[in-house]
Amino acid sequence: MTNRLRAEIQEEELENEVVEVAPKKDIPDNWFTNFLRKGVITTDVATSALPFVLFLAGLGMVYIANMHMAEKNIRDIDKLDKEVKELSWDYKTTKAELAYRSTLTEVIKRADTLGLKEPIAPPVKLTVKAEEEQ
Which of 23, 44, 45, 41 is closest to 31 using CA atoms? Predict the structure, then answer.
C-alpha cells in the first residue's frame, strides 16, 4: 500500500461502488385499491370521518372495559358465594354440636368432672310466713 491521502482513497471507493436502485413496486390493481383511489373514500372524506372513527374506537374501548369489570364482579360474587356456603356449613355444625352438648346426659357428664352431682331428692318448696305484728 502506498502513501496516499485519505480523500483520494475515499474518492476511489465511491467510484468503484455501484449503487443499485430497487425498482419501484406498483400498487396492485384490484377492487380494494380502486375503491380507495377512485371510489367513494377519498383523502378529504377519510380526514373528515376521522373524529367519528376515533369516537367509535373510544366506545369500543369502553365496551371492552365494561366487559372486564363485569367478569371481575362475577368472579368476586362466585368467591363470596362459596365463602357464604362454607360459613353456613360451619354454623350448622356448631349449632348441632351445641345442641348435643346441652342434652341432659352430656351436662351431667361435664358436671361430674367439676365435682357436682345430680340431686336425688325432689326440690323442696320454701314458704315464708309473715310475722304477726305485736
Answer: 41
